[in-house]
Amino acid sequence: MHYTFNIERGNFTDAGQASSSVKRTLKQLGVDPANIKRTVVALFEAEINAVAHAYGGTIDVDIDGEKIVMVVADEGPGIPNLDLAMQEGWSTASAKVREMGYGAGMGLPNIKKNTDDLKIDTQVGVGTTVTMTVYLT
Amino acid sequence: MTIKEIATLVNGEIVGAPADDLYEVKKAFASDLMSDVLRFSMDETVLITGLCNNQTMRTSEMADLRVVVIGRDKQPDEDMLELAEDSGITIIKCKYSIFKISGILYGAGIAPLY
After folding, report:
1. What's the rounded Cα separation, in Å, for the pair B56 and B60?
2. For domain A2-135, which architecture applies?
3. B52 to chain A, minimum CA–CA distance in Å?
């Protein structure tokens, strides 16, 4: 099964809709609750990152019997120092993003913790593509 | 402790999804930082927060939270209430500060998340 969602820059009213939709689908498919939890936490963090930092993008989710692959691709500023961004507590979030309850510097570390495989391709001034895989077996 | 018992203790009002009388709350976590909420398992846990917006509900949905106490007399808007109902999350609106809510629930036997 394949699902695609759009990400709109700075739209915190609707941010999380894609993750919510995926969560409902995984529940309907009878996926183990622990795997649902780590899938949607990782996807939600990536979705919020894209809404907070990028100029727009897409989310593609592929689900089969063995794994869930989620690709969050954005056009945006990119991540200048990925090693720093992976550290807990390091953040470049704006005041607006912090007002929404984010910007604690836990996004990418949370994604890493909740996925079995994480690949981040980023280019400064172009954008970032985060590919996350959760194995179901 | 039931959700209704928590509401009574903090002199709060239940809104959003109806309280599930069978859901037992044993622990609490107080935070306005939603990424911190997503770091931990929230089983049998009530979130105490002063953050009152759609993202409070979205984060709670992802974290599998069933009950959230919104302190500091913050008022959830219609969008937030709709998200809560859709996600099966009970909101307890409360006029007390986060510190006071936390103290009351701790004193009543609710354990810290860690």
Report:
1. 6
2. 2-Layer Sandwich (3.30)
3. 9
Does residue A12 sit at the B interface (CB-CB below 8 Å)?
yes
User: Taking Cα atoms as reference points, which of A136, A132, A108 lies closest to residue A60?
Assistant: A132
Q: Cα–Cα distance between A55 and A71 in angstroms, integer?
A: 16
Model confidence pLDDT, tens digit, residues A100-129: 888 777 889 999 999 999 999 999 999 999
pLDDT in tens, A93-105: 888 888 888 877 7
Among B49, B62, B82, B83, the strongest candidate for a mutation testing the A interface, having the largest count of A CBs within 10 A, is: B62
Integer Cα distance of A12 and A83 in angstroms: 27
Distance (Å, whole) CA A102 – CA A91? 10
CATH number assigned to the domain with residue range B3-112, chosen from the 4 options 3.40.1390.20, 3.10.290.30, 3.40.1640.10, 3.40.50.300: 3.40.1390.20
